[in-house]
Records
---
Amino acid sequence: MSSAHHRTWQQYHVGHVNITVQLDTAAEGRSIERHQELATISRQLIATMNAERVCVTWVVNDPAHSAATPLILKSSLEHELAILGDENWVGPTAGRTRFARELIRRVAQARAAGLHVTSFAPLVASIEEHCDLIVKQHLTALVGALNNAETSREPRALHYGVWEIPVSARLPLAPSWFGSGKRSIWRRMTQTQREAGSFHLLVDAAALAAMPRHDLSDLRWLLRRLTALRDRGLIRVETLRTTAERLSKVPALSPQQSILRRAG
């Protein structure tokens, strides 16, 4: 490669975008009709991502037993399956012992089924106090700030090799009297490219299923523009696992002390 060509390449900034799709909700209290609506929107989302050739992290309650898992595995794309942690076993009311038991069970069953599960999406603000349990299960990426989708921050290391990736924006959009929310998300995505930063879009399938006609127009609008930047080499769309692997290649600035302790 000539030096002139090398200098030309260096002038471009590359942003990194994660798309995480939460396919499940808390398993309890779901009617048959609601379950069918969620199954329908899940199939539509999987088909949409495959059509746009966008690799996605799909979040489900139990990857080894989810109805969506076979559909996701059929894809030629390198999608990722992640575990959803809901309020039934994550958070202060559940306790550390139950959290450990449920996490170990889901991870073990997924890996016994041949699924490479390394990401976790809690429905609580933070599980940082249980990071040692995350480390023991060889998980490397966590979805952060699920209850604060307006926050836009770069990924942060909770422990060497374990990264929390905050949510930058959420779909579907909340109703607004002021302009187009999808255009606001798009401006932030293009800013990510200019600044060589990170952007994490969370898509809530259950919320989409509750909308009239299961409207995916905002998502498709964003995907068309995002893939155009991707195809020009200006944006890299990554799964959470891929992001954690990339970030972990950077050497730690200082050794970190062990945080491992008993689950009980």
---
Amino acid sequence: MKLFFSLLLVLFSIGWSYGQIIIGIGSRWDNSLSEWIIHTEYEGEEGILQQRWANDFTHWEYQVGDQRGEIRLKWTNDPTQWEIRGDGEIIDAKIIWSNDFREWRITDNTHTIEVKVKWGNDLNQWYVDSADYGSMEINTLWENDVRDWEVLDELGEEISFPMRMAVVFIVVFNSMPNY
């Protein structure tokens, strides 16, 4: 019986330490897209995504609980490739097709997923659908209003929080008007 409860405690601890699941993201201010509130599955635990420098859309920082990291253009003035750093990982996000910002490949050099718009040029719905790692959907709460997003995360445990953050960032950033 002690072995059973010990095993149960270990399994519960593993599940608890797995990390945050993002369920939504919304701009902090109605008239600015430079600061975002990240909503997680845990009641009362929110995070933040914000520009590192005012009026600079090339370098961002995030923090959710004890998870923190930065997101920046990999090469100056080239919005086709981003680097996401967090939790000791470096994640690369790059467009799949030249000059097409509707499909992205995100990798940590061990796991690779693709995020893309669901319907042509409609930036209100994006998704990840991987036979190996599960799925994720990111949708605006109100059509053509990029200030609030719902995230339905069913990705497997192999996908780290920084990689999930990369997916959410790529969607939100590439749906912003006039960045």
---
Amino acid sequence: MLNPIEIENLYKQYAENLSQLAHDGITSVDLPLLHELNLLNEHDQIKDDPDDLTQYFHVIETAEKVTLFNEQFLVWILPKTEQDNPITYVMIALNAGGKTSLEVVFTTSGVYNTPRYVLKVLQYYLIDMLETQATLSAMEKKE
């Protein structure tokens, strides 16, 4: 597992090169995205499971950000103010095979800038990344 100094160095590297490294750009959380991810319909929502691996993170909190990390993921949650409006940036990096890569960056603002939406969207992306990694591993094993 990466140590806090390595994690901070990765954060700085990603933050300084965000436009080049965020290959899908920065996703803004809004009503259409929540519908697309099925996070609004109660029966489609990700259920809170106390054994869910996405809840097993080490936490480092500073005045600038909250960093969550475990063996698979690095997550930085950055509350900011832009033009007098609160906004939250979330950067998610995958740590697999000794290599770390920035995979998802999203922002929440306005009515969507609540812990509930930040965490639901974060959980969705973490689960999606795990499913993608499992699919890729299965395909590699078949070859």
